[in-house]
Amino acid sequence: MSIRLTNSQARQVILHLQALSAPPTGRMKAGDLARLIEQLGYVQVDSIQWVERAHHMILFARNQTYRPAHLAQLHEKEQQVFENWTHDACYIPSEFYPIWRHKFQRDAPRLKQKFENWQGPGFLQKCDALVERIAKDGPLMSRDVERAKGVKQQMWQWHDGKAALEYLWRTGVLGIRARQGFQKVYDLCSNTVPSHHYHGEVSHQEFVDWCCRAALERLGFGSAGDIARFFDLVTIKEANEWIASQGNNSLVPVDIETADRRSTKQLVARPDIVSLVAQLPNMPKRIRALSPFDPVIRDRKRLQWLFGFDYRIEIYVPAEKRRWGYYVFPLLQGDRIIGRIDMRAHRASDSLDVAKVWLEPGVKAGSQRMAALNGELERQAKFTGMNEVVWAPDALQPD
Predict the structure, then answer these.
(1) In the 8-state DSSP scheme, what is residue 340?
(2) Cα–Cα nearest to 191, from 140, 130, 139, 131
(3) In this predicted model, what pLDDT tens digit does every residue of 218-247 receive, in sequence order?
(4) Torsion angle, CA of 381/386/389/392, rounded to 10 degrees?
(5) Rounded-to-integer distance, Cα 296 and Cα 168, Å
(6) Could you tell me the pTM of the whole model?
(7) Do 14 and 306 meet the contact criterion of CB atoms below 8 Å apart?
(8) Which residues fall within 8 angstroms of residue 317, CB to CB, at 6 or more apart?
(9) How many CA atoms does the CB half-sphere of 313 hold within 13 Å?
(10) Residue 132 contacts by C-beta under 8 Å, 6 or more apart in sequence?
(11) Of 105, 190, 231, 398, which is the most buried if we count CB atoms within 10 A?
């Protein structure tokens, strides 16, 4: 018999499991950041610094005492996280490295063919030479690798040295030792992950079981597609086979009410879903701006049916065709996404500039809500080192 969850209960489950159900006010102590990233599963890395880079905004949304230096310490000094690929480049707990070692082995033939077809003959020999160079001389950056003679660099075109470094990183030969600015510093992977994690190995069955189970632990409930997409390590077919192999003690069938209250989704849930729902804390009333790459936001289809929020990042959309703006942030309040905001940290003017705020239908700009929004903007300004918040005259759009 299926367990039925209301839409509000379902939203609170995912927000709780993704560390957004507690007030983000407690000061981070030793180990808290590592535990937070382990709870999330990964933190996506992105280069755009419209307010602050995505990985920093994801962590700040969950604890307002977080600062970028904390992540650098965790990654570069303590090596409790490493950088590699899920659906995109991410910081990943180092304890997960044996899973990624299996991924590297699994993906190697496909990536080898892809990069050889792209780069042409002699590419693997260049890779071998780079590995020897790093082993002998130590870490390097892509700017340390000379471009092939006679090749003119064009925007977004990787020279062959950069391609070799990325291939070696994606296949687990090299790791990211540090970042300078936002530039990767490549080193032998064995130097970027603690030895006891680096040498760990898992079988294919253990790999699939971990990927599916770990995804469902962090989602609470989902379809085979949801489970496969979370880490983007297994196929939907493998996730379906994993679901079929689990007994009633491992998975629970659930009916999840959609945001429009007109239908339900028939999914599977982790076995403790009933007790999890019974113990859900009250959601904070404060407003929080979420990164477009936040784990709660990333799966757009799930976001649509669960939160009723239609979101698209428009950085690749021509300006005249954008509905919202270049880089717009969803606004979370309680268990609802109440709107979106076009804001930017202008470091030259030392201000966090608010261009537009759009509230969702039925969400009113009352005095308490606007006070909550201004409080979040002040926190964002402090986080990014801006001295003031500046609103455009017509920033608040009608609902």
Answers:
(1) E
(2) 139
(3) 999 999 999 999 999 999 999 999 999 997
(4) -120
(5) 30
(6) 0.94
(7) yes
(8) none
(9) 17
(10) none
(11) 231
